[in-house]
Amino acid sequence: MTGPLIDNLQYANWSEKIFRQMRAGGVDAVHVTIAYHESFREMVLNLETWNRWFERFPDLIFKGTTAADVRLAQETGRTAIYFGFQNPSPIEDDIGLIEICHQLGVRFMQLTYNNQSLLATGCYEDDDTGLTRFGKQAVAEMNRVGLVVDMSHSAERSTLEAIDVSARPIAITHANPHWWHPALRNKSDAVLRALTARGGMLGFSVYPHHLRDGPACTLDSFCNMIAEAASRYGADNLGIGTDLCQDQPDSIVEWMRVGRWSKSMDYGEGSADNPGFPPMPGWFADNRDFGTIRTGLKAAGFSGAEVDGIMGANWLRFYEASFGPA
Questions:
Q1: pLDDT of amino acid 271
Q2: What is the pLDDT of residues 176-223, one digit of tens each?
């Protein structure tokens, strides 16, 4: 069986059209965001919506909970959907909900979005105080049940502490190196060295705010960045996490950035300076374009095995080690 194609972060406005594009693009598995600022009950409503999609489109998608589901997706010509949170809000202040969420099928949880949470500090805060007492205990519980720690939107100290405190490798599912493009959301060389040295995974993002030159970023620039990352950290802990927000209305940016904690955009992605969703780069519009990235990686000098790894085999190996109990 050929290597899998895995995108480890999307937040699209889901529809039959997108599910069919996934199949046209040969996408075997996608990690989808089911919570930004939702409470536990609101997150469950999102699960209900997904259950209806699984019922309506069983020939296109199904719920993935184990690494074996990636292979099942390949064998049956479908896309496995894995659930994740971009904020720990669904666990509220109850550590027992971590196991409940895992039992419901959630496999990734960010310790923060852009703000301070009960667990850690987000990348837009002025003062990064690291993991809280609750945060350290939450990481231990996530390790125990098999819920992956994701630090994509977290600040520097918090991210380094999560890498150190976690007994299992963590993930940065959707970000790029700060040395390539200095967005607040992108990660420092120190973070990426620590992450990959402990077996953690980095998923490269094509969200324009994370790209050098934004929507004008070229495929060569993106793939050469991945090649430089491989030279620094090795290719085995690199993958794709596009952060594709296809067909989302601009109003969704307000929920993503503001939630309930503020009445206005303050700064950063989705602020008055960056309203709405920016245009995607011309070489990646939707799930049918992963072949373009594969071609670009080959042109950047990666071997066939390395390309297969970055396009999904590395994530599959990570899934195999991460989704079950410790």
A1: 47
A2: 999 999 999 999 999 999 999 999 999 999 999 999 999 999 999 999
CATH number of 6-322: 3.20.20.140
SS3 readout for the chain: CCCCCEEEEECCCCCHHHHHHHHHCCCCEEEEEEECCCCHHHHHHHHHHHHHHHHHCCCCEEECCCCHHHHHHHHHCCEEEEEEECCCHHHCCCCHHHHHHHHCCEEEEECCCCCCCCCCCECCCCCCCCCCHHHHHHHHHHHHHCCEEECCCECHHHHHHHHHHCCCCCEECCCCECCCCCCCCCECHHHHHHHHHCCCEEEECCCHHHCCCHHHCCHHHHHHHHHHHHHHHCCCCEEECCCECCCCCCHHHHHHHHCCCCCCCCCCCCCCCCCCCCCCCCCCCCHHHHHHHHHHHHHCCCCHHHHHHHHHHHHHHHHHHHCCCC
Give the start-to-end residue ranges of the domains of the chain. 6-322
pTM strictly above 0.90: yes
What integer pLDDT is reported at residue 278 of this predicted model?
86
